[in-house]
Design brief:
Structural class: alpha+beta
Radius of gyration: 19 Å
Largest sheet: 2 strands, antiparallel
Number of domains: 1
Order of helices and strands: EEHEEHHHEE
Shape: globular
Number of strands: 6
Distance between the termini: 21 Å
Helix content: 10-25%
Strand content: 5-15%
Length: 196
């Protein structure tokens, strides 16, 4: 009845949902949808109600119970990213797709005279940069020449994996897509050698 067995590790980051359930429950509008289509957060507006964390079906929002950064001995405070503010105790956090890198790439594109087009591959998110197997691809799906668009066209996304009959090579899927929150993260089914 259940042909595939075993547990699988799936790195779960903020899915950047188009209909994010975390956004409408924030009492102070600290989490919102940016014009770029990202689910972002104003950290200094957050009052720590934790409603967004409860309402997130992916459970990827975290509450800061401590000020982790304030007691760092010198020179360890230098390891903090100067492009990000150190969030304090009582604030919710989440992945932002490295919005500071996206904005820096947009600013650079504007300085170079093409404000409406950020060159594919001109920046990487931190997780993409540190992934040793290049399993993480980030980019603009609307750009037909982008690497992420080419991978999308090759694998596409299965809608309702149990009812849709797709060829094996089309192995893309979204986690909990039946919730209709329209997550922007696409995973690929693992390729297994079942003949062994």
């Amino acid at each position: 009845e259940y042909p595939e067995r075993g547990a699988h590790y799936i790195p779960m980051l903020c899915q950047q949902c188009n209909h994010a359930p975390c956004e409408p429950v924030c009492p102070v509008a600290a989490t919102y949808h940016s014009p770029d289509g990202l689910n972002t957060q104003v950290y200094n507006r957050c009052v720590g109600s934790r409603y967004c964390g409860v309402n997130c079906p992916y459970k990827v929002r975290y509450f800061n119970f401590f000020d982790f950064w304030k007691d760092l001995p010198s020179p360890l405070e230098m390891q903090l990213n100067p492009d990000l503010s150190a969030r304090s105790k009582g604030v919710m956090e989440k992945c932002t797709f490295c919005i500071q890198r996206i904005r820096a790439a947009k600013d650079k594109a504007e300085d170079e005279g093409h404000p409406d087009h950020v060159e594919d591959g001109s920046f990487q998110t931190a997780c993409q940069q540190t992934c040793p197997t290049d399993a993480i691809v980030f980019g603009n799906l609307k750009d037909p020449n982008s690497k992420v668009r080419k991978i999308w066209e090759e694998h596409q996304v299965k809608l309702n994996r149990h009812e849709q009959d797709k060829p094996e090579e089309m192995r893309g899927y979204r986690v909990f897509e039946e919730l209709n929150v329209e997550p922007c993260i696409v995973y690929l089914d693992r390729v297994r050698d079942t003949e062994v």
